[in-house]
Design a protein that fits this description.
Rossmann fold, DNA Methylase, Chain A, domain 2, 14% strand, 7-stranded mixed beta sheet, 371 residues, 26% helix
């Protein structure tokens, strides 16, 4: 859906001249830094990331140039954030409010979940700061909720032009089947996300993404990269993964290997668990439990194990050397899995960033706000 955000015969991204005015960003709900890293790759200057999860501080500070603030967004006032922007720069307020309550995987969360209302705290900060640019990323299901309509209405009252769409991340070079809602808003004029053709994304497969990593056995850790580690498998699950084929599921097994819950009629609706990925296709959507063989189709295409933490991070398009845990601390799969699974894919952040840079370029260095 768009509000005057159509394409305008845009030239190739490689032909862009860098605007004299720089875009400075603050990333709300920044997590481990996926969106920030992507925005930085696109040439934006991210000044601050905010998250309530203390575990995000090390990866965010270690891998990006921005500062980290440990805080709940609903406790932050716009006046506290203003000093992080630079004078005479273009201000961007970005963020991905916690999406679990809107996800199709979540069957329990409702309006009593406080995360439901954090999007309105985002809207409050937009009102208080009045930045030239806004971007928001979330799960597609958010578009069906009243709280999203309230967010849009708030933007309209403030004079923003905006567009939003459901993005198939595969088309932009993310090697996983992941669809996300992306919104862009501007005080300068119509704005829209670059198309896959304009961005120049190339479809990537599991093999292209992680095929270069060292082979591992279940429960093993790569001596050269402690994030390249895998969960151990019980004797029963080892038999199950050995009986699994790429692209298959538990329905391919002998009856004695099938879990009791899947033998019942209700279990027939869960064919996407205990499966192997295919080498020459994108992976399934990375969740916070991608390191568990029984949590989805997260079995390695040919090695008898589930994905390693590093493989999950790479499928989320984090750089191969992205650090998630301080060298002094033990790597906890549940913690790192949460950080990776909840992240905005870095490549999607880059798409958003380049779309914003193209928008700024298209309106010139002396772009005037419409309000």
């Amino acid at each position: 859906m768009s509000m005057g955000g159509g394409k305008r015969g845009r030239p190739r991204i490689a032909d862009r001249a860098t605007p004299r005015k720089k875009v400075y960003a603050i990333d709300l709900f920044c997590g481990a830094g996926g969106l920030t890293k992507g925005l930085e790759t696109a040439g934006l200057k991210v000044r601050l990331g905010i998250d309530i999860d203390r575990e995000c501080e090390y990866p965010y500070s270690q891998n990006t140039a921005a500062q980290f603030m440990h805080a709940s967004v609903d406790k932050v006032a716009g006046r506290n954030l203003e000093p992080y922007y630079r004078k005479n720069g273009i201000r961007l307020l970005a963020g991905c409010a916690p999406c679990q309550t809107f996800s199709s995987y979540n069957q329990k969360a409702d309006k009593n979940d406080r995360r439901w209302w954090l999007l309105l705290e985002f809207a409050r900060l937009v009102r208080e700061i009045d930045p030239e640019l806004v971007t928001m990323e979330n799960v597609p299901g958010l578009a069906e909720q009243d709280v999203f309509g309230s967010f849009i209405e708030s933007l309209e009252r403030q004079g923003y032009r905006y567009s939003y769409s459901i993005v198939d991340c595969v088309q932009y070079g993310v090697p996983q089947m992941r669809k996300r809602l992306v919104l862009l808003a501007s005080k300068y004029g119509p704005i829209s996300l670059l198309s896959p053709e304009e961005f120049g994304g190339q479809t990537k497969t599991v093999r292209m993404a992680i095929g270069h990593l060292r082979p591992l056995e279940a429960g093993q850790t790569d001596s050269r990269d402690r994030l390249h580690q895998t969960a151990a498998l019980s004797p029963l699950n080892m038999k199950r993964i050995k009986a699994s084929k790429a692209g298959g599921s538990w329905k391919d097994w002998n009856t004695n290997l099938i879990a009791d819950c899947h033998r019942r009629a209700t279990g027939e609706s869960y064919p996407g668990v205990y499966g192997r990925m295919r080498w020459d296709e994108p992976s399934p959507t990375m969740t916070t439990q991608f390191y568990g063989f029984g949590s989805g189709r997260f079995g390695h295409p040919e090695q008898d194990r589930a994905l390693s933490l590093r493989e999950g991070a790479i499928l989320q398009t984090f750089p191969d050397n992205y650090e998630f845990v301080s060298p002094e601390k033990t790597v906890k799969k549940t913690t790192v899995g949460r950080l990776i699974g909840n992240a905005v894919p870095v490549k999607l952040g880059e798409v958003i960033g380049k779309s914003i840079m193209e928008h700024v370029w298209s309106f010139g260095n002396k772009a005037r706000r419409v309000s």
